[in-house]
Hints:
Elements lengths: L6 H10 L26 E5 L3 H13 L4 H14 L20 E6 L5 E7 L5 H11 L4 E3 H10 L10 H12 L17 E6 L5 E7 L20 E4 L3 E7 L1 H6 L2 H10 L4 H15 L8 E7 L4 E5 L5 E6 L2 E6 L1 E2 L4
Parallel strand pairs: 3-4, 10-13
Antiparallel strand pairs: 1-5, 1-11, 2-3, 2-6, 5-6, 7-8, 8-9, 9-10, 11-12
Helix pairs in contact: 2-3, 3-4, 8-9
The chain binds aspartic acid.
The site of aspartic acid (ASP) has 13 residues, from strand 8.
Amino acid sequence: MGKKFTRRDFIKATAVAGVAAYTLRDLSSFNTMASPGFSGEPVVISTWEHGMAANEAAMKVLSSGGSSLDAVEKGVNVSESDPEVMSVGYGGRPDENGTVTLDASIMGPDGNAGAVAFLQNIKNPISVARKVMEETDHVMLVGEGALRFAKAHGFKEEDLLTDKARETWLRWKQGMSDDDDWLPPREDHDTIGMVAIDAEGNLSGACTTSGLAYKIHGRVGDSPLIGAGMYVDNEVGAAAATGKGEEVIKVCGSFLVVENMRHGMSPQEACEEAVERIIKRHKGKPDFQDAFIALNKKGEYGAAAIQQGFQYALYFKGENTLNNGNFLMEE
Ligand code: ASP
């Protein structure tokens, strides 16, 4: 056996042959350098009012020196487990058949990602997504396979449809006509997306949802799709989305927000540009809501929505506040 041909040899050989030589970035350790503009104070931002309680849990992790990855998981676990939050996890509104199906994704500063989609009977899909990320070399598991994987990792199977959610579904069904296939609008969808920066300056994101209420059985939204519902690039920033997932998917929304920041936009400008992109590509005035939240490496934040009414929870400089997002559509 001759000497093993290394990557260095390959680069040398291609340079000799006149092919442009280049060096690949060493990805074995991610960039843990805090940005020069970062104060060292952790920041958490998440979508909607239920983000307030989730932020508290996330900041508890961060203020005791925990990682942003642990923080976003523990943070959104709060909304997933709360039956009063009817758009995420346990107590989430079901699909048109009356089945609660959940989507979630998580991404850490090392660029690794995990996701589950169309998962049933598991209260905390974000924690299953984290297991997919850490225990497999896959990114996404769906449906029956995701459930089997979760159970094999010790997650308890349970009925997620609460009486309250069942009643709202029945009321929705009663609005259906006997004469045609017309369905009342599928409304009430408020995912929790959360992004955080820890004291080390590392970014992570999580996104978890029961999706569009009364959706067609099998529908998967943007939330579990890396780059659509959530995206993290630890050299640049992190973003998450909420609202009508179909429109977010079509513009690779969260990836777009992060790329906007890479090209010099502030988190606020980056969110607004992505919202504008959705509005522009839609024919006519959008009658739906979409919104983004973002954080950059300096711990600066931004949030923007299509319509009035979007709120985000921000834990910044020791204070957790509920804020109204900028919106781009005039009434
Ligand atoms: N984006 C979610 C979905 O389409 C719903 C939401 O955020 O409100 O499934």
